[in-house]
Amino acid sequence: MKVITASLLLAALSLAACDSKTATTGETATSTATAAAITPPATDPAAAKTSGTLATANDEAAATPAPAPGSIPAAKASDAAGILARPQVPILCYHQIRDWTARDSKGAKDYIVPIAQFKSQIKMLADSGYHTISPDQLYAYMTTGAKLPSKPILLTFDDTDLDQFTIARPTLDQYGYKGMYFVMTVSLGRPHYMTKAMVKQLSDEGNIIGSHTWDHHNVKKYQGQDWVTQIDKPTKTLEDITGKKINYFAYPFGLWNTQAFPELKKRGFVAAFSLAEKRDQQDPMFTIRRIIASGYWSPKTLRNNIVQSF
Ligand SMILES: [Zn+2]
């Protein structure tokens, strides 16, 4: 248990460190919001981009399930330049959803979204007309330009926290939203984490489960047997739980290197998710960007960050 606690603490600290460049602190978030508020939407290239080619399909067409990634012929898929040329779909990353305590550090609060704040963030997405999409829809869009619903967004939840089941799941249900859950298997069934049965239920209800290692070690440091411990075994565990193939991976701390791509590909992953840093120019499908929806962010600040970051 000590090891796990230390690893998670490290996770929070490293996440805070690696994401400090992006607007996730209270002060930065506020200034970002101000900057966005004074920028006329018509001249904001990010806003223009988002409201341009992305919002194309009617919602009925987009409601049809996306093809499984494996069923898309390689010959039909765009090359890296083609993928990079398409507007990015906004992707949010959440961790804990609970009220802050006196023990929570300033940095940790980016990763801990108070319950009321979370509910108002999700309500804002619904009120603003956002439609959640599945990673398969994202994959089909990125690789072939397949149509998406208007104002698409992908909601992702990392690290297996119990509140993702008890708070996020019913909140998303309220709006007919689905999410993607990146599970770290060491924590399954531990106090404050989801059980295997909960993960299965999320999957059965139409959410997608992704692989997030065994105990959150940094992919950049893996050698030999680490790939078995951190990737092969936990992914097999998740496939046994859900009865479905696991196609997607999220890097712990959002950290990756190019050596990881062939390792992930040969294990059957079709895409991998990082955090806010720039995508790899040769392999954008293995460096899909997400932003952490900070606990400090009001719905308005979140909306501004979505527009600015993607
Ligand atoms: Zn994580």
Report what the structure shows.
By secondary structure, the protein is of the alpha/beta class. The chain has one domain: Alpha-Beta Barrel (TIM Barrel), CATH 3.20.20. It has 12 helices and 10 strands. The strands form 3 sheets. Strands 1, 4, 5, 6, 7 and 10 form a 6-stranded parallel sheet that branches. Strands 2-3 form a two-stranded parallel sheet. Helix 2 crosses helix 12, helix 6 runs parallel beside helix 8 and helix 6 crosses helix 12. The N terminus is likely disordered. Zinc ion binds next to loops.
Overall CATH class: Alpha Beta
Name the CATH superfamily assignment: Glycoside hydrolase/deacetylase
**Number of domains in the coordinates?**
1
Radius of gyration: 18 Å
Strand content: 5-15%
Give the number of DSSP strands.
10
Mean pLDDT: 85
What is the CATH architecture assignment?
Alpha-Beta Barrel
CATH domain topology:
TIM Barrel
Tell the overall outline.
globular
Please estimate the helix content.
40-55%
Major sheet attributes: 6 strands, parallel
Count of individual helical segments: 12
SSE order, one letter for each helix or strand: HHHHHEEEHEHEHEHEHEHEEH
- Low-confidence sequence ranges: 1-53
Query: Which structural class best describes the helix and strand composition?
Result: alpha/beta
Query: How far apart are the first and last residues' alpha carbons, in Å?
Result: 38 Å
> Ions, cofactors, ligands: which are bound?
zinc ion
